[in-house]
Amino acid sequence: MNPMERHAVELVGQGEVPLVLAHGYGCDKTMWQRLLPLLTDDHRVLLYDLMGCGGSTLAFYDRERYATLEGHARDLIDVLDAAGLEKAVLVGHSVSAMTVALVATMRPDLVDRLVMVCPSPSFINDGDYVGGFERSDIHALLETLDANYLGWSSEMAPVMMGTPHMPEMGERLSNSFCQADPDIARHFAHVTFLADHREDVRKVAQETLVIQCKDDVIVPPGVGLWLERNMPDATLVVLDAMGHCPHISYPAETASAMRAFLGAR
Amino acid sequence: MPPDPDRVPAGMVTCDPAGRVTYLNGRMLAWLEAEDAADYLGRPFYAMLAPAGRIYFETHLRPMLMIEGRVSEISLELAAASGARHRIYLSADVETDGDGAVRAIHAVCFEGTERHAYERELLLRRRKAEAYEAIVAASSDAIVNVDARLTILSWNAAAERLLGHTRREAIGKTLPTLIVPEDRRGELDALLRRVAAGEAVTVETVRRRKDGTEIPVEAGISRIRNERGEFIGSVGILRDITERKRSERIIETLNREVLHRSKNLLSVVGGMASMTFRHTGPDRFINVFSERLTSLANNLTLLVERNWGEVALDRLITQQLAHLGPEAMARVVLDGPAVSIAPDKAEALGMAMFELSTNAVKYGALSVPTGRILIHWRRMEDGSGNLSLTWRESGLSEVTPPSREGFGSLLTGRMLEISLSGKVEATYAPGGLSWHCAFSP
């Protein structure tokens, strides 16, 4: 099975600068669906599911390979190679902002620029650095996951379906959206929230746009500033927005920040 | 009368499209231990949640609400003003206008303390059950679960290996018809009565494999009861004891063999003692007798090494001649094909070889520097399969046949003929002794 199938890759739109969208922890590539129509007129856009999420082939989820984000970074390199994309702009949401940063240093030939949407190089408070959480919070998160993946059988599972205002999405999504295999979800939560990538992002030479929401409970305001100061070539844009998913809640604002960055050259 | 939201036994929250609280009812305030709704109005909904819930809200719930329009029965913890946590289940719907733009988010929360405790218990039990399943799957013993009517409910991989039926073939079948030989069914009924009464039984018995062969097993059976304590079935652990049974049989045979041979040996030793004494008298008795005992002991070693099985003739001879030392052995030639000797014959033949060798040292070919011995054997060509074994000495200028028939000549002569059911001849030719023996090995 090739990487395109393994990661349920979709390629849409046309344009000179290729964009690659990497979704964050918790959901799958469907997260991009509101932003997507705002990008496809000017760009060839590649979307994929991280291994263990959405339509990816779960049988390939190997706890050793995915014990760090490097496994996901190698996946993305495989996808880019298979799709024949070079000099792409990698867009990573949340934890995947760190994955695209790793790819940028591992294979600079593939990566022209980076867009980090609500990134955080480390979620755990550490001295002066305010990541926003304590280790105990992350362990409580794992318990919350357990509490909500309790049944994993149809009669017990929380109903996470139904799309009254988007019926066209309902059918396709109902079985996968935001519902991962509980063991994989736990494992990925560990990898996501307990990792520290502050040293990795210092090595990213490519021009980087950091998009942050003014009020994001997962990423405290100081984190965006930390990235702008510590990455060689990063620009911070703070959206007047709430939440951790501006591409879902504020697609127009997110797209215009991206367009300004992509057209800046 | 319209319902009073502050008296409804559920929490109610409404948020604006960004997720800021625009309304919360009395029950919600009570759970949060807040006096005044103003403490929460205008603030993000997640401010009511513990930190883990905030992450969960942003990574799962907000995307789901925005993309799918609703969430149901999500388990969350409210963080009360005092620091206490209150478990709730939250369901929420997104209200949109005609263009699909979000107008408001309406959430209702139900008391969740008891349901959560119950679900945690279920979760723990499921993990425990999964751990047991893993143990059963990996067990090298066959583990079979049956209901009260002996219908097979589970059948692990080891059961497939032991009994030959696959899981698919076994499940749903009746245990006795599938694997219990007819003559053991009464025994099983009796065992199951004891099991149903609460006894855990272990028994050695026999089960039948798919190919019809029977296999000895150790079966441990215990009962399973339902939550009301009623007998609903049993679980059996079957261990293949073919090897154990075989070892037990071998040990039994060996014990009998050892007893039998020890008795024989003691009578040989007794006979040997009196015969030796008669020929040597008291002065030389100890020396000669202990040499013969050593020869016997060597034979015994070889027989035990061979597990009381057949012994290779060349090894038998080499061992009985080992006392000659390397210099003398250089003058002895062994020549013949590989032949095995039955254990009872090996004992007598070994003692004869020893006698011949001590005589050769004292009076024969090995008593002079130029003497040599050829020990030669071959299968006879008469179709009998009998063996012809020759001991030929050479290099002696003067040969004197022994003046009287001593115990040594009995060992190499008449006694040997009886033990081997064979024929022995000894001639004193010029140059040395020529000894020949024909027997069925």
Keywords, please?
heterodimer, A: 265 residues, alpha/beta, Rossmann fold, 7-stranded mixed β-sheet, 10 helices, 36% helix, B: 441 residues, alpha+beta, Beta-Lactamase, Heat Shock Protein 90, 3 domains, 5-stranded antiparallel β-sheet, 13 helices, 27% strand
Give a written overview of the molecule.
The complex is a heterodimer of chains A (265) and B (441). By secondary structure, chain A is an alpha/beta fold. Helices cover 36% and strands 16% of the residues of chain A. Chain A is built from ten helices and seven strands. A seven-stranded mixed β-sheet of chain A has the order 1-3-2-4-5-6-7, sandwiched between helices. Chain B folds into three domains: 11-118, PAS domain (Beta-Lactamase), CATH 3.30.450.20; 139-240, Beta-Lactamase (2-Layer Sandwich), CATH 3.30.450.20; 292-439, 2-Layer Sandwich (Heat Shock Protein 90), CATH 3.30.565.10. Chain B has helices at residues 26-32, 51-68, 113-138, 157-163, 167-170, 175-179, 185-196, 242-305, 313-321, 325-329, 343-362, 407-412, 414-420; strands at residues 11-15, 21-24, 70-79, 85-96, 102-111, 142-147, 152-155, 201-208, 214-225, 231-240, 311-312, 332-335, 340-341, 372-379, 387-394, 423-429, 432-439. In chain B, a hairpin with a 7-residue loop joins strand 14 and strand 15 (387-394). The model of chain B has no long low-confidence stretch (mean pLDDT 88). Classes of the chains: A alpha/beta (265), B alpha+beta (441). The interface between A and B is large, with 50 and 40 residues.
Q: How does the SSE layout of this entry go?
A:
The complex is a heterodimer of chains A (265) and B (441).
Chain A: H1 3-6, E1 10-12, E2 19-22, E3 45-48, H2 69-83, E4 88-93, H3 95-106, E5 111-117, H4 135-148, H5 167-173, H6 182-194, H7 198-201, E6 207-215, H8 221-230, E7 234-242, H9 246-249, H10 251-262
Parallel strand pairs in A: 2-3, 2-4, 4-5, 5-6, 6-7
Antiparallel strand pairs in A: 1-3
Helix pairs in contact in A: 2-3, 4-6
Chain B: E1 11-15, E2 21-24, H1 26-32, H2 51-68, E3 70-79, E4 85-96, E5 102-111, H3 113-138, E6 142-147, E7 152-155, H4 157-163, H5 167-170, H6 175-179, H7 185-196, E8 201-208, E9 214-225, E10 231-240, H8 242-305, E11 311-312, H9 313-321, H10 325-329, E12 332-335, E13 340-341, H11 343-362, E14 372-379, E15 387-394, H12 407-412, H13 414-420, E16 423-429, E17 432-439
Parallel strand pairs in B: 12-14
Antiparallel strand pairs in B: 1-2, 1-5, 3-4, 4-5, 6-7, 6-10, 8-9, 9-10, 11-13, 14-15, 15-17, 16-17
Helix pairs in contact in B: 8-11, 9-11, 11-13
